[in-house]
Amino acid sequence: MATLDYFRKEKLPHIWCPGCGHGAITGALVRAIEKLGLDKNKVVIVSGIGCSSRAVGYLDFDTLHTAHGRAIAYATGIKLAKPDLKVIVMTGDGDCTAIGGNHFIHAARRNIGITTIVMNNEIYGMTSGQYSPMTPTGMFGTTAPYGNVERPFDLCKLAIASGATYVGRGSAYHVPLTVDLIEKALMNDGFSVVEALSGCPTYFGRKNKIGDAVQMLDWIKDQTVNVKAAAVMAPEKLVGKVMIGELHNAAAPEYAASYKELVGKVQRRYDSYVGEVRECASNSD
Ligand code: SF4
Ligand code: MG
User: On the chain, which terminus has fewer CB atoms closer than 10 Å, C or N?
Assistant: First the structure.
């Protein structure tokens, strides 16, 4: 199957602005699916609300474009009802970590088999550039005209601390790395998170005077260091740098499988109870 076969061609061209990083990240997901040779009919992709969440409209799988922040909640229901499906969430920094923050940490805590791709452009793009919980301190947004005074989440650390079993960070600049991380995330049975640094030249780039789309990609490149390279670098060279690469890979029981096992156990107890009741009833006849 060619890469384009994973797209709903009739829905193209897309609505993203020229130079938006979300296209490269959506492409990385499709390439990872293609490399793994996943059956289109066994993949469900769920999104919330925002520019990143528009991706599902272009992808030719069973897709669900849901409510703001609730993609993981919908995906949890799908995974529990149909544990054999590969369930993927596409979300943005605002959608996932503000209104969707609770769903995110509890999905990680349960280690449910969902792969979550967080396109982090450090701003609410669709609603015109408000700062999000992942906007770095001091950066500008339409609701932070004098600079953001809040501290941002480190999403990967949050995911690891909450219990996710696969965590990595890529970017719209580092596409081969992002494909590789998504591929490994899809292979992991439990809750997997790939944060992909994305560029929003229209709002974040303009508000922060970073420049055009190409300059935004350079800006991403300059602030990142691969975790393998970082291991042999002097600490002072790492100040202000963002780690990319595979950050966590651990084993733990997957929630939907544990839940299915529990349902089986309860069903067996119920069946044996019903059997005993029937036997008592026939003996008393
Ligand atoms: Fe991308 Fe920003 Fe345009 Fe949204 S507003 S499509 S995030 S560049
Ligand atoms: Mg965003």
Answer: C
The CA 202 to ligand 1 mean position distance, Å, reads 6
Per-residue tokens: 134: 């992942």
Q: What is residue 228's three-state secondary structure?
A: helix
188 alpha carbon to ligand 2 midpoint, in Å? 26
Amino acid present at 57: G
Residue to substitute in 16, 120, 123 for testing ligand 1 pocket (most ligand atoms within 8 angstroms of CB): 16
- For the stretch 228-250, pLDDT in tens is 999 999 999 999 999 999 999 99
Fold for domain 3-252?
Rossmann fold (3.40.50)
Dist CA 179 CA 172 (whole Å): 10
Give the residue carrying structure tokens 């996943």: 38
The two tokens of residue 118 are 């967080």
CA neighbor of 5 nearest in space, from 28, 34, 29: 34
Distances (CA, A) of 177 to 184, 192, 196, 248, 269: 11, 16, 10, 15, 48
